[in-house]
Design brief:
Elements lengths: L5 E12 L5 H6 L1 E11 L4 H4 L8 H13 L6 H12 L5 E10 L11 E8 L2
Antiparallel strand pairs: 1-2, 2-3, 3-4
Helix pairs in contact: 3-4
């Protein structure tokens, strides 16, 4: 059997959250952008064309948005970890890479955004 891998990607998911180290970030909130790649071992949908045989990326996107809009955390690293934990709950999930972008970070330097990327694999 050949080595086949299936990756389900969500790019540019935007949601309003209240995450940050500073009180003002948690009070005012801002837009966060999430990119996610979920590697799965479930390949049946390649042949069946049946949503039940794969990860429903609409439901996953909704779950990720709920995390971003949910209770505040201080660090982007923690937010990425929560998203990774949820993504790996999907049946057949083998690994996930999550990038959380913070486009409007308050820094004295001019930057277009800050972001963190977390890769996590099931043992």
């Amino acid at each position: 059997m050949s080595d086949q891998r299936l990756t389900i990607s969500i790019r540019g998911l935007e949601a309003f959250g209240r995450h940050g180290v500073h009180d003002s970030e948690r009070e005012l909130g801002q837009r966060f952008v999430v990119d996610l790649d979920l590697e799965v071992s479930r390949l049946a949908a390649v042949h069946s064309d049946d949503l039940a045989d794969t990860v429903d990326y609409a439901a996953l996107a909704q779950a990720v948005a709920a995390i971003v809009t949910g209770p505040p955390v201080r660090l982007l690293e923690r937010l990425a970890g929560l998203i990774a934990d949820r993504a790996l709950q999907e049946e057949g999930a083998r690994a996930v890479t999550v990038t959380v972008h913070k486009p409007h970070v308050a820094l004295p330097q001019v930057v277009s955004e800050t972001s963190v990327t977390l890769h996590r694999a099931e043992p």
